[in-house]
Write a structure and sequence with these properties.
By secondary structure, this protein is an alpha/beta fold. It has a single domain (about 10-265), classed as Vaccinia Virus protein VP39 (Rossmann fold). It is built from 10 helices and 7 strands. The chain has a 7-stranded mixed beta sheet with strand order 3-2-1-4-5-7-6. Helix 3 crosses helix 9 and helix 9 packs antiparallel against helix 10 (about 235-250). The two termini are about 20 Å apart.
Amino acid sequence: MIKPVLDSPAASAWPDQLRASERQQQQHYDNIAADYEAHYSDEWSLEYRRRFIYEPMFEGIDLMGKEVLDAMCGSGQTTSYLLERGAKVTGLDISNEVLEQFQARWTDVKAVKRSLLDSGLADNSCDCVAVVGGLHHIHPEMKAAVREIHRVLKPGGYLCFMEPHTGSFPDVIRRVWYRFDRFFSDNEAAIDIGRMQKDFADRFRLKKAKYLGNIAFLLVLNSLIFRIPPGSKRLISPPLMKLEPLINKLQTKFTSCFVVAQWQKKT
């Protein structure tokens, strides 16, 4: 079982000493929780996640019986996949609203209301930490979050993540869109994966990285952003989901919408 650090001074300070980026993240997801749930937990969004995010993200990793932290877990979409793979899951999120949804959905799964910058978990207590689209929400504290992930991972444990990345044409569009859309927080920004790898080369070994995401990522998974009514997704999703893997074969870093990566903590 992933153990919390019960006597941590930082733990006793929660939540009065949240950093500005943490409060911004908390308020943002409390505000959009209902809309987010409607668009990201329907059957087509979950199927997209399974096929094009989770399968490449956890490829080759045996999760059976492993202690996995679903960091920035939201209402538990990733937890569903992890439980199917036999993992022992702990969900962690800073948002009151989404964590209530998580606990209602997964009554037997431990949920921790903490920030990823200060998880309150014990050193070397996780076999794997999964982050799906969370790190780009916590600028300028992303390095602190990765250091915290490193602390809680066991030697040889995995950090598996999916994030929008810099150096792509979709990111050029995204930067403009971020400025005007209420569904984005002011401190969101794509991840510079090359810079991130250099910064943590002494702590993590890069196992794999894949650049993916095209038309179904935009219109099926991100129907909220494109204001596509959830009810219409049953009509548009089947053909778009068939196109996605065909286009993925031609993807480059420049054309892709996101990166999925596996990092392994050095022993």
